[in-house]
Amino acid sequence: MTLRQFEYVIAVAEEGSFTEAARRLGVTQPALSHQIRDLEQSLRAVLFERGAGGAGLTAAGAAFLGHAAAAVASARQADSAARAAGLLAGGELRLATLQSVTLGIVPAAITVWRRAHPLVPVRLEEYTHAELLAEAMNRGGADVAVGPPSSTWRGPVRTLGHEEFLIVLPSDDPLLSRDSDVVALGELADRPWVLYAREVGLSLVVDGACATAGFTPRVAARIHYTDTAVELAVAGLGPALVPGNMIPQRFAGHARRPDPPVLRELAAFTRPDPSPAALAFIEVLAEHGTL
């Protein structure tokens, strides 16, 4: 008995005709009939009653049909599982991220990925702006990009959530004497700020938040990295607005929520024909990424 013979039995039973079953399967009617006769001889049982009106199952055929359907379904599931495992058993996953999220939501997902798919290493490249992520995807330079949604990207996008920004202040800042974890951004309007370089996407977030609060921040420093922003703010050079997941749990300064709140949407986006590895990584990122 073969899996192909099982498929022939199922087709004849569903079509009620050897001719229609052969057409559906793309084989000749004599070839199909020959395979069914061989199967009946092997089973020593007649599976179909053949007549002018078509083919109907005998009692033996009806009993056999359920087992044939289960065997075919099981074989297809095994094939799908093997193919999926094979596609995730080699090569590499190319990941593009913003500098500001590489140390935020990505490491936890990579840790889980390495344990689940040790044969698919991750190659990561950082970019300073969301539009550069989109360019990397458009030229085929990455399998998955992680950052704010891009206005120039037209492919699939999976929203991961919103990251919250916090104000970093030195430990001796007078605003910390109040019993509140919220600081109105307007209260910092007259201070020089630790800002991000213009080519860094975070500069748009800070400029937009300050504009909403009614002021343009004065520049104490322009830097490229969030960890530098935290250190300079702790040193007292000026307040800094930093993604909350980029601030160490223990550090010498203090973090406060701004009023109004500052949030940024983060998403994972892929090409229209994502690889199995890309789809699998996005699921890991959605479940284990730290926002």
Could you describe the 3D structure shown?
The structure is a single chain. The chain has 291 residues and is an alpha/beta fold. It folds into three domains: 3-87, Orthogonal Bundle (Arc Repressor Mutant, subunit A); 93-160 and 268-288, D-Maltodextrin-Binding Protein, domain 2 (3-Layer(aba) Sandwich), CATH 3.40.190.10; 161-265, D-Maltodextrin-Binding Protein, domain 2 (3-Layer(aba) Sandwich), CATH 3.40.190. The chain contains ten helices and twelve strands. The strands form three sheets. Strands 3, 4, 5, 6, 7, 10, 11 and 12 form an eight-stranded mixed β-sheet that branches. Helix 1 packs across helix 4 and helix 6 packs across helix 10. The protein is rod-shaped and about 95 Å long. The mean pLDDT is 88.
